[in-house]
Amino acid sequence: MNNKIRTKAVSHLFEAVLTLRDEEECYRFFEDLCTVNELLSLSQRFEVASMLKKKDTYLKIAEKTGASTATISRVNRSLNYGNDGYDMVFARMKSYQDGTKE
């Protein structure tokens, strides 16, 4: 894990995120916290990760998301060599959808 991001301020932000109860609260908080472009960039990366997990091609991902190949490559590196955060979240989302809540 990157120790450069382990600060009191980041921990405080994560505490705040963990208090959010539903999607509407997420919209309200993140619209206040982020610019439209920041939020769209985060959601784009998440969509890219989802498509990479499904083994979609870079071309298909770029066409669907508008992400650059550099962004797709960066997300792919995180999936392959990161901290498994994407995998953890995707597994939980799948278990919620399957009704087996992890």
Topology:
Layout lengths: L7 H11 L4 H11 L2 H18 L4 H8 L3 H13 L3 H14 L4
Helix pairs in contact: 3-4, 3-5
Summarize the structure.
This protein has helices at 8-18, 23-33, 36-53, 58-65, 69-81, 85-98. The protein is mainly α and 102 residues long. The chain is globular and about 35 Å long.
What is the succession of H and E elements?
HHHHHH
Oligomeric composition of the shown chains: single chain
Give the low-confidence spans: none
- Main sheet specs: none
What share of the residues does DSSP label as strand, in percent?
A: under 5%
- The computed structural class is mainly alpha
Structure summary, number of beta strands: 0
State the share of residues found in helices, binned by percent. Answer: over 70%
Give the rounded overall mean pLDDT.
95
Radius of gyration in whole Å, from Cα?
15 Å
Instruction: Determine the number of helices (DSSP H or I, runs of at least 4 residues).
Output: 6
N- to C-terminal separation?
A: 23 Å
Overall form: globular
